[in-house]
Structures are given as structure tokens and as C-alpha cells.
């Protein structure tokens, strides 16, 4: 079992981050925030997919002015993504927003940052303190020559101390880069020195397939080390895919369970049914289930019920047929033509809705 790093609690709206709470899954809308209808429609879809906190871009005043309506109608806490403009940050804080993302390196004015933090404290608004290679302070670039893991961690530690010196503690830290090992090392350095919750992710990970693999590798290492209290998988894809991949990563490590987990064999010469098609059909038919369910689809007698004894239900395939089993016990034999329907029928009778 993974032993998670002990961190202090931070609240974004009613969502607790850190202090032993389940790792919170986040995403970000790709709509123009001032398009209130489109933004709320996407937030609702993401919430249905399992997103627990949503971030929206606020690059312009018209986006900040749209926030009150979005916050009022969002089913999950909303974080405003603020860069460069203290004025837009202060305007956003008047909207009832639950949190803001602030990269101090993009503002680089301690007086202005202090004003924003004081207003956040007054309104009980959480802050995500962001550090990444693109917003690293010049003094650290001069010191290290490039955005190294040490430079990123040093920036995060500096600004964390600054936040605390001005009396603000309701914040989490995000240290991100697109290089997996640099990202892991920077987060490790920071995690060893503080109890501040960490938002983790591999930024600019890339398109869906490549980005999912890159994110799984980097986040898998961090989560195995016990590092990470909230997560966003950053993909050049529909934000709903980010949520889906995040849960798959967490589920593979036993950190969260949501929806269906399919355990299935690789293809090989022993298989005597159309296993890829069976798996595809089952995955599509069960995509709307939110409650945890482990389904095994084993391809031959070698990888049969014994290999899938931890599954809730499954198929152990043979020659043009399969044994339908539940909790490791055979139920009945079904033909290849009926195996998907019979599996789905049995699942429909289980208490998982």
C-alpha cells in the first residue's frame, strides 16, 4: 500500500485537499470564459465525468465579469486562472470564486501579490501557487542557467515562505514542467521540506495517447512516492479525456476507484475468440457506470478464472465460448455470440447503479 505524504488541509470551496483526503481530480475548460453558456455546459459535462474542481481561463476583463454567473451555476468549485494582471485578479475575487491560480513569477511585484493574498484571506479564497519553467524568476535563471529542478523547487519554497509571512496559509503549490524526471525531482525537493499540499501534473504532456503515457509515467512515480494531493492530466485533447486518464492512473495504483476497470489479456496465438472486439464492446457498454467495478475478460484457459480471482465478474474464454464467473466462481458457459450480452445482463443485476 502506498504511504502518502502528510500534508496540511486546504479547502477550495467545500472540497478538501491534503490532510489524508482522497487525491482530487481537476481539469480546465477550453471555452472562452466570457461565453457563459458554453463554459457552464462544459463544466457540467466534466463534473459528470468525475471532475471535482474546475479551472477557467481569465485573461481579460470580460472573462472576470462572467465569473459570478459561472460560479453561481457550477456544480463544482471554480478556480480562476490568473496571469500577469493584478487588476484582473482583484476583479475576479469579487465574483464569489472558490480559488485562483497565481504564478508570482508572472506578476513579480511582491506588493501587488501581498494585496491579492490579503483579499483572498478576507474572502476565504484558496490560492494555487504556481511555478513552472516558463514563469521562473530572472534571479533563478541567472543563478542556475536554466529552469532546473533545483531552481523550480527554490522558487516554490521562496514564494511559499512569502505567502506565510504575509499571513496567508490556504494555498497549495504546483511545480510543473514538461520533462518527467525534472518534474519528479522538483516536487521531491519541495515535498521533503514542507507540509504544503501539492497539485501535480506533467504540463504540456502532448496529444491524447502520447500525453497519457507521459503523464502516467511521471504521476505514477510521484504517487508511488506518496507525493500529490490533487492532480490534472494535461492533454491536447477534450478535457473529459483528462479526467478519464487521471482516474485510470489513480485506480491503477489503488488510490481511487471510480467506474469500470477492465482486466483483459494481451492477444496471442492461444486465443480462440475475437477478444479485442469483445473487450471493445464491453468497454463501450459499461462506460456510463460510475461506481467501482472490476471486470475481467481472459482470453484462454491459461489466463482463466485463477488469474482474475480479484475481479467482481468476468469471462474466461475458450474455444468459441466462455465461462461466465462472479467473484471467482463459475456461473455458466456461454457461446461467443452471446457472451457480451450475458455478461452485461449479469452486471445489470448487480448492485452497482
Automatic annotation (TrEMBL):
Q: In which pathway does it act?
A: Isoprenoid biosynthesis; isopentenyl diphosphate biosynthesis via DXP pathway; isopentenyl diphosphate from 1-deoxy-D-xylulose 5-phosphate: step 5/6
Give every IspG C-terminal domain span: 261-348
**Gene3D superfamilies named among the record's database cross-references:** Dihydropteroate synthase-like, Sulfite Reductase Hemoprotein, domain 1
- Any Pfam family matching the protein: GcpE
What reactions does this protein catalyze?
(2E)-4-hydroxy-3-methylbut-2-enyl diphosphate + oxidized [flavodoxin] + H2O + 2 H(+) = 2-C-methyl-D-erythritol 2,4-cyclic diphosphate + reduced [flavodoxin]
> Which EC number applies?
1.17.7.3
Name one molecular function that GO assigns to this entry: 4-hydroxy-3-methylbut-2-en-1-yl diphosphate synthase activity (ferredoxin)
The cofactor required is:
[4Fe-4S] cluster
Q: Which InterPro entries match?
A: Dihydropteroate_synth-like_sf, IspG_bac, IspG_bac-typ, IspG_C, IspG_TIM, NO2/SO3_Rdtase_4Fe4S_sf
Binding locations of [4Fe-4S] cluster: 265, 268, 300, 307
Biological process GO annotation list? isopentenyl diphosphate biosynthetic process, methylerythritol 4-phosphate pathway; terpenoid biosynthetic process
Quote the record's cofactor note: Binds 1 [4Fe-4S] cluster.
Would you say which domain of life the source belongs to? Bacteria
Key words, A-Z: 4Fe-4S, Iron, Iron-sulfur, Isoprene biosynthesis, Metal-binding, Oxidoreductase
Q: Domain named IspG TIM-barrel: which ranges?
A: 7-247
Metal-binding as a keyword?
Answer: yes
| Annotated function | Converts 2C-methyl-D-erythritol 2,4-cyclodiphosphate (ME-2,4cPP) into 1-hydroxy-2-methyl-2-(E)-butenyl 4-diphosphate.
User: Which PANTHER family has this protein been placed in?
Assistant: 4-HYDROXY-3-METHYLBUT-2-EN-1-YL DIPHOSPHATE SYNTHASE, 4-HYDROXY-3-METHYLBUT-2-EN-1-YL DIPHOSPHATE SYNTHASE (FERREDOXIN), CHLOROPLASTIC
The record's family statement is:
Belongs to the IspG family.
Q: Which NCBIfam families match?
A: ispG_gcpE (TIGR00612), PRK00366.1 (NF001540)
Alphabetized HAMAP family for the sequence: IspG
Q: What is this protein called?
A: 4-hydroxy-3-methylbut-2-en-1-yl diphosphate synthase (flavodoxin)
